[in-house]
Amino acid sequence: MSADDKADEVTQAQAEDAVRVLLRWAGEDPAREGLLDTPKRVAKAYGDWFSGYRIDPREYLERTFKEVAGYDEMIVLRDIEFESHCEHHMAPIIGKAHIGYLPSGKVVGISKLARVVEAYARRFQVQEKMTAQIAGCIQDVLQPRGVGVVVVGAHECMTTRGIHKRGVSMVTSKMLGDFREDARTRAEFLRFINVSP
C-alpha cells in the first residue's frame, strides 16, 4: 500500500461518523438507545458486503486440474446465488449467476467459479459490468475455447424506491469464444440453464 493509499484510507471511526450523519439526515437521533450501536453494525456489514474489493478473483482460478481423461465438453455451474449492491443507489441486487465454459486441457474446481462470482458481486456493481467481469476473468485465466455467463438479478433500487415494481428481474449475458461464435454451443448452454434462446 502506497503512502497515498494510506492517506485516502477511511478509518472505522470515520465510517461510523458517516452513519451517524445519515441517521441525523433521515430524522433520527443517533444517541437514541436503539441506535447507539448501529454505526458500528453498519460499518461491519459494509466490510462484509464489499469484501470483494480486497480479493483478486483471478487467484481463485490459478489452481487447475489437467487429469480429466481428455474431457473437453461443456462444463456448467448454474444457480450460483449472489448478493450485490447497485452502484447508483447502494441498494441490493439479489440473484443467480450461471457459468459455462469449454475447457482447453484444464479444468478448475467448481467452488472456484462460485468464488469468482462472489468476489465481483461483493462490490458496488452494475449488473452488465459484473456479467462481463466474470466472463472476462474466466476467459483470461483459464483460456478455454469459450465462456458463457448469464446473470439474473432483482434490483431493489427498482422494487423498494422509484417505480416500485416487484417481481421483475433483469437478465444479462456475456458470451465469449465458441459461445459467441457457435449458435449450437450457445443454445446448448442456454438449455442447460433453462433459459430460452
Please describe what this structure looks like:
The chain has helices at residues 3-8, 12-26, 38-49, 110-121, 127-142, 156-159, 178-181, 183-192, and strands at 64-65, 75-86, 92-102, 107-108, 124-125, 146-155, 170-177. The chain is built from 8 helices and 7 strands. With 197 residues, it is an alpha+beta fold. Helix 2 crosses helix 3 and helix 4 (110-121) runs antiparallel to helix 5 (127-142). A hairpin with a 5-residue loop joins strand 2 and strand 3.
Terminus-to-terminus distance: 46 Å
Helix and strand content put the structural class at alpha+beta
Biggest sheet overview: 5 strands, mixed
Strand fraction band?
A: 15-25%
Choose one word for the global shape: elongated
Count of separate DSSP helical elements: 8
Please report the total strand number as a whole number: 7
Q: Report strand order across the widest sheet.
A: 5-2-3-6-7
Task: Average the pLDDT over all residues and give the rounded result.
Answer: 93
What's the SSE pattern? HHHEEEEHEHEHEHH
If you compute it from the alpha carbons, what radius of gyration comes out, rounded to the nearest whole angstrom?
Answer: 20 Å
Low-confidence stretches: none
* Percentage of residues in helical conformation: 40-55%
